[in-house]
Write a structure and sequence with these properties.
With about 100 residues, this protein is of the alpha+beta class. About 25% of the residues lie in helices and about 40% in strands. The chain is elongated and about 50 Å long.
């Protein structure tokens, strides 16, 4: 089945160290099909241009788990997860 989702989100946020509104965060969300089912790979990074603080995180989880935990993410990531879940659900019904 040919299903792929690749979203890249970038926005400005407040730095947790210096409280400057100049930190830029980036989310990269990609769907991957494996033998165990559909997985979502989420990569997060944040960097402040003023104080130099940076953090990053990456993880891969089944789409169903990411969908259940979607309320823990920022609203734009929630939308991408919702879109991925609905698309996967729609494609599963066709098969």
């Amino acid at each position: 089945m040919g299903y792929a989702l690749n979203e890249h989100l970038t926005d400005i946020t407040i730095c947790p160290r210096c409280s400057a509104p100049s930190a830029v965060y980036t989310y990269s969300i990609r769907s991957e099909r494996s033998d165990d089912g559909l997985y979502v790979k989420i990569v997060y990074s944040m960097k402040c241009d003023i104080c130099g603080y940076s953090e990053s995180m990456r993880g891969s989880m089944p789409l169903t788990v990411a969908y259940k935990l979607r309320h823990l993410f920022i609203p734009r990531v929630k939308i991408v997860l919702e879109k991925a879940y609905l698309l996967a659900e729609k494609l599963e019904k066709k098969v």
